[in-house]
Amino acid sequence: MTAALSLSETERRQSRVFGISCFSAVIEEIGREGFADRLLDFLDCTVGADHCAIFQLRDHELTEVGSAYRSGSAAMSKSDLTPYEVKRQQSQTRLPSARLDVCNIADANEGRLDGLHKRQRIMICAQKPKAFYCLRILRLAHRGRIPDGKMDHLREIADLLVSLVAQHIELQVRKPNLTPALTSLDEIQECISSATDLSRREGEVCARILYGYSSCGIALDLGIGKETVMTYRKRSYQRLGIGSQRELLMWYLALWSALRGRTGANDVDLLTNAELNSRIRSKPPRAAAIAAVLALA
Fold first, then answer.
1. Which CATH class is domain 14-175?
2. Structure confidence by residue, pLDDT tens digits, 201-225
């Protein structure tokens, strides 16, 4: 009897450690492409999920902003959620708490709720300042009934999960479109010259390196010798504190994002290398992630 209890306690501890590990992975992927997959891993560990999808209702428009499904359950990925149903959930959600709703649904072609055609759907919804968010979780019939303890745990962290979803969507929206950053030589050169202390020639050489010119091509375009190009490049790298073309690219994209995300193309302030490096190292605030760690500690 004692051995059995010890084994059960060990299993619970292992499950808790695994759950915290899965949740940490979710936090790490906030704002990234793998967020939905890591969220599904955590939900699978928590309540046995086969599919999850994230929805945002904003300005009366319902948008699915991410989803993930387990192998063999791809057919579940098609959304059965309508704007009307989400609005109904919104009308029943009372601030500041998230609403958790559980029901059984069937495939469109099935009239019965049995066998593998039966799904259990869990909806976690909450109103946030900028939008109404829904996290839909689907479970196939073979999963069986969710233990009361696990459902209680899901209710406890429901607000936290919606906060993570809202933060993820917000960071995704903030991401700049980097396509214009490298498709115009004039754009590259203007960005570098207006916000750094590089000389005119150093900026021109760096701009052409980023645009894809070879050393010979830069020399021909600027009417200078190849050795002079190499000298300007070396001097520029020293000024910027970098050591390779890849680091130049990373430096420039950070500069472009900081300037274009903060101001327009004109009237930008001069950024020192120290200020730029500080911007590169800084990360968007993740208050929800911090709260998540504290909640699971």
1. alpha beta
2. 999 999 999 999 999 999 999 999 9
Residue with tokens 């680091």: 247
Taking the complete model, does pTM exceed 0.90, yes or no?
no
The 8 Å CB, 24+ separation contacts for 97-104 are 97/126, 97/158, 97/159, 98/124, 98/125, 98/126, 98/158, 98/159, 98/161, 98/162, 99/123, 99/124, 99/125, 99/126, 99/158, 100/124, 100/154, 100/155, 100/158, 101/125, 102/151
For the chain, give every residue range classified as CATH 1.10.10. Answer: 179-281
- Please, are residues 41 and 25 in contact by the beta-carbon 8 Å criterion? yes
So what's the architecture of 179-281 in CATH? Orthogonal Bundle (1.10)
Q: What single-letter amino acid sits at 1?
A: M
Q: Is residue 50 within 8 Å of residue 139, measured between CB atoms?
A: yes
Domain with CATH 3.30.450.40 in the chain: 14-175
Task: Kindly report, residue by residue over 56-101, the tens digit of the pLDDT.
Answer: 998 888 888 899 988 765 555 455 677 788 888 888 887 778 889 8
Residue pair 279/258 in contact by the 8 Å Cβ criterion: yes
Tokens, residue 19: 């759950």
